Amino acid sequence: MKTAVIFWSGTGNTEAMAQAVAESAGAELFSVSDFSGNIEDYDAIAFGCPAMGAEVLEENEFEPFFSGIENKLNGKKIALFGSYGWGDGEWMRSWEERCVANGAVLACDSVICNEAPDADAEAACVALGKALV
After folding, report:
1. In CA terms, which of 23, 51, 56, 73 is 20 to 30 Å from 94?
2. What is the pLDDT of residues 66-113, one digit of tens each?
3. pTM of the predicted structure, to 2 decimals
4. Are 4 and 30 a contacting pair, CB within 8 Å?
5. Are 21 and 125 in contact (CB under 8 A)?
6. Could you give the angle at which helices 13-25 and 119-132 cross, rounded to 10 degrees?
7. Cβ partners under 8 Å of residue 28, min gap 6
8. Contact at 8 Å (CB) between 84 and 52?
């Protein structure tokens, strides 16, 4: 099974989550700006992005990337994760709805954590990676 973890991180919090997911899934790890592959080549993908602004995906790199590939997620097994500094997780609920509307199959519950991942968030990321594969 070919698996990828694709993320954007501004502070390093979501990157730390991405590393835990990738390690537990045995996945290739890419920052969104470094991903030049084809989404269709992967059997399963975890996407990571923190909440930005008014609880939205990062708008300069991640959102344009995701908008460009979301129509290719039909039937694909995916998982979502990210960190936040405020709010209640609305960005993640909206992102999940968007993925499901495009036919993606969520492998497990999404993982969110406030600021830097603590031991519980790291364990949840490991479980997310295992559920993905």
Report:
1. 23
2. 999 999 999 999 999 999 998 889 999 999 999 999 999 999 999 999
3. 0.97
4. yes
5. yes
6. 40
7. 2, 3, 4, 5, 22
8. no
